[in-house]
Structures are given as C-alpha cells and as structure tokens.
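cron nightly-structures :: item 1 of 1
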Amino acid sequence: MNTPPLQRSSGPGVARAPAPARRPGAPPPLLRFGVEEEFLLTSPRSRITVPAAEAVVADAARTLGPRAQYEFLTTQVEGCTRPVGTAAELRAELADTRGVLLAAADRAHCRLVATGTAVLPSHHPLTVTPKPRYLLLADRVDGVADQIGAELCGCHVHLGDLTHRQALSLSARMRGWLPLFQAFCANSPFCEGTDHGTASNRPERYARWPTFGPAPVLDETGYRAALDRMLADGVILDRRMLYWFARPSEHLPTLEVRIADSCADLDTVLLLAVLLRALAHTLLDPRTRARPRPVPDGALRLAHRRAASAALDARLPDPLTGHPQPVRQLLPALVEFTAPALLRTHELGLVRHLSARLLATGCGADHQRAALARHGRLSAVVDDLAHRTATTAPLR
C-alpha cells in the first residue's frame, strides 16, 4: 500500500492543528476512518487471474489519482477511500472507488473480483509488480511470491486521527475482538482449485510472510525497539513491512486493522469498518466500565485459527469474560457493547440491520460454497464473486 486513505496534514508543509483540550471524563473525539480494498483481476472467459494491473491502475488513476494502486502481484489492484466521518460517506466512497476500478477493469477486458485467495488455479509463475520495493520483497521472501495461493487480498481499515501512543494502546485493547471480525469477513474457502475445508485460506498462506499474526502488546519504547531489532536482524526490509493484524501507521495518524479477507459484498466492508470504529470509540471512552480481559498469545492464535476455519460457526472467547461463545452470539453482543458509541454517530440502526442480515444470509465463504453447490463448478463461484463485487447499490 503506497498511498493511504488518511493523511497527516492538509497539504504540503501544513502542520496538523493541535487537538483541543478534552475535559476529564468526556467522550473521545470522533475518529475519521478509511478503507483499503485489494482485488484480483480475472479473465471473463477463463475466470483465471490475469496480469492486467498496469492497464487498470493507469486508467483508474485518471479519476482516483494515487488512491488507485498497484499491489504485490500484477494480477492484483487496490482501491483506497478518502478519510471520512460518517457511514454514509464511507459507503459512497467505497461505491465510487469500486465503480472506477470496475470500469477500468472492463476497459482492460478483465473483471474485478473481491476474494481472499484465487478460486481457480492461476498461471504460474506469478509476476511480481515491477516496482523496486516489490522486487526487493520478492527476493527477501524467496519462493513465497510464487507459492500456490500467493495472490492474497485483504480489506484494511484505518482508524484515526490517533497519536502513536493511542494507536498502540488501542491495538492492545482491541486484539481480543479481532478473531470475531475475521470470522464474519471470511471469504476464501477455495484456493487455486482446492477446497481445504476452511472458510478462510488467506491466513494460512499469509503466515509464510514474516511478522504475520496478532500484534504484540507494546508501548512506544517497546514498539521502536522491536522494529529496530527486526530491521537489524533482517526480518523486515523497512518499517512498512509489518503484517500484524493491527499496526500503527508509520506515516499516518492511524491504527490500521488488517484482519479481514477482501469482501465481495460492499455492506460487509461497511459493517467491518463502522463496527471497528465503534469499538475504538468504546475502548477509548473513559466512561466505559467493562474492559477486555488480557488474552495470552497462544489462546489468541487459537481463536484466529478457529475463526478462519469455521467463520460464523466458530466458538471464540468472549473478550469481556474469556468464556467461549458462538460467533452468532458474540456479534450481536459486540453491537450492544458498542451501542452508546453507535448512537453517538447515528449508526446503531444500520449496524443492527447489517449484522442481522449477515447472520441470516451468511458470510462471503458461505456465499462461495452456495454458488458451487448451485452450479457444480468453481468458474461459477468466480462469476458470483464478480457480480457481488460489482453490486454497489445499497441493499435492502
């Protein structure tokens, strides 16, 4: 990701104004948020991924500017929203960004598909985008760039504006909830022609990259020391090469949450972003009495594996009690836990509606399996994903 959706200043050389003093016990300032979505490009005839990123990004950039971006492989593109303050604004941004990329893909004779991994077997070797940093990365992770399932697409939410200290603190408090977000955004049950029996294949493939996984609990000093150590040991090339599930941006005033597969259904992306922001507002609010329990790293990794495997049918630890609960109970419970924050932003009704519909109709992995059951072939799954990705009108 080269150009993020949130910026530190309003223009070159313009410093951000200092935040006004907040009276003790007052709710935290409302955070802006933005989304980065990664997509695959597929052939309309073969449904296999095609290396058309150069044409698609160049075309889309005429409208989106730097918010249309290249990704690691030439079969992938990324779209970034601008930072916004409301759910309605974010949905419009997501729809507009997708619309521009969809039109550019159509002119390049390919289709835009939101899924965590390629459904059908791709043509190997996969081509790395010929940008200096991507080529260095490919050399550093030799073999991973062309592994089966290397075309990994995620949906990343930026929460800001936050200081580095606030972002690290929020990451530590939020990490027990992230398996739940991973579960309802699961959208990669098939990986290059193979069904591995899980709802999300992307985490297993991504685990071969350095630093992938839950973010450690660190203060500012510990964070800088950890990055310096990884740089010195050659684990990472630079400070952007962190693939933790949540990370403070090195060049933005945000916490970037990187837990979700790319979601074909735009309203799942909206639910992800709005609920993450509501959780952030709740955890940052000094009036919130219930606080998450510390989660041991081993238990947290197990929860993420269960979320990837079973999605909506998983049982995950309740972050407030530590007791295992079904995802179908945890999601409504999270909505109610964040209800005061959602009321403050006039989003409670929207989130209740979107979460109830998702639980009733299934997550992305459920839709992919249903498409295969209806048609009996994986090419139909790609068609269904392309249709869902292109459906940007509000659902009822």
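cron nightly-structures :: done
The longest strand covers residues 32-42.
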